[in-house]
Design a protein that fits this description.
mainly beta, globular
């Protein structure tokens, strides 16, 4: 299928051809694009998020779990605090969002970057992070929800 619009040939894209109306908006977009889950993601994830980081498939007898608080400020800076038993670990830096990904870029060179994914009201990742009370880095599943 091929359509011509004002002398331009529009070849099919993924089996669909699109035309543009006078405002430049696509006409004839299939319904599958309207159901794209990223369309329901709010414009900004700024705010405070809380949850847990749990060690994933630990070779140790007990797996480590930490409480995590992430404060994403509207100015593009963040503070993240991990608490495990009587130990606390914090870092700060800058963040940016693109689609369903939130990337944290830390000021601390030992821990430079982490990318979280967003699905609805949940931020999640699998990452190697330090456990405050364990004194070691572990692969952890991280799940955060908006603070209420």
């Amino acid at each position: 299928m091929k359509e011509t619009l004002a002398g331009m040939s529009l070849a099919p894209l993924g089996g669909h051809a699109y035309t543009c109306d006078a405002r430049g908006a696509r006409a004839g977009a299939p319904a599958v694009y309207a159901a794209d889950p990223s369309a329901s993601i709010p414009a900004s994830p700024a705010g405070q998020w809380q949850g847990t980081a749990a060690e994933f498939q630990s070779p140790y007898l007990s797996t480590g779990t930490a409480r995590v608080t992430l404060d994403l400020r509207p100015d593009g800076t963040f503070t993240e605090t991990w608490k495990q038993r009587d130990r606390v670990w914090s870092m700060s830096g800058k963040w940016h969002a693109q689609g369903d990904k939130i990337t944290l870029v830390a000021d601390d060179r030992r821990h430079t970057r982490m990318t979280l994914r967003r699905k609805g009201e949940t931020l999640y990742a699998v990452a190697q992070e330090p456990l405050p009370a364990e004194g070691r880095v572990a692969t952890e599943t991280i799940e955060l929800h908006p603070a209420r």
